[in-house]
Amino acid sequence: MDPKRLEGVIPKHAVCAHCGYQFGGAAIIDGRIRCPECGKLTDFVAPLLATGQTSEPRPLGRSLLRMTLLLILAAVVAAVLAARLG
Question: 47 Cβ partners below 8 Å, 6+ apart?
């Protein structure tokens, strides 16, 4: 993939590699996005060329939140069932 093809691409789920800030609509310029939070550059050319992806993978934040909520729900259901049966 030609690095020039990434110019102006807006990754859907891009996060800063340094501080974790979610860019949310920042365009890639020269294969990088400058973080408005920490000011450092995140390189997008090398990872995208290595994997053949056209956008960054989804961050784990949402998946981790869902898993946590499911575990809490399971604990509440178990406590309610234990109280009814005990």
Answer: 53, 56
What predicted TM-score, i.e. pTM, was given to this entire model?
0.43
Closest CA to 33 of 53, 54, 7: 7
Do 25 and 8 share a structural domain? yes
Pairing of strands 32-34, 41-43: antiparallel
Helix or strand or coil: residue 67?
helix
pLDDT tens, position by position, 31-83: 788 888 898 888 875 444 444 554 555 566 677 888 899 999 999 999 999 99
54: left (phi over 0), alpha (psi -120 to 50) or beta: alpha
Q: Which residues constitute the domain of residue 19?
A: 1-55
Specify the number of domains making up the chain. Answer: 2
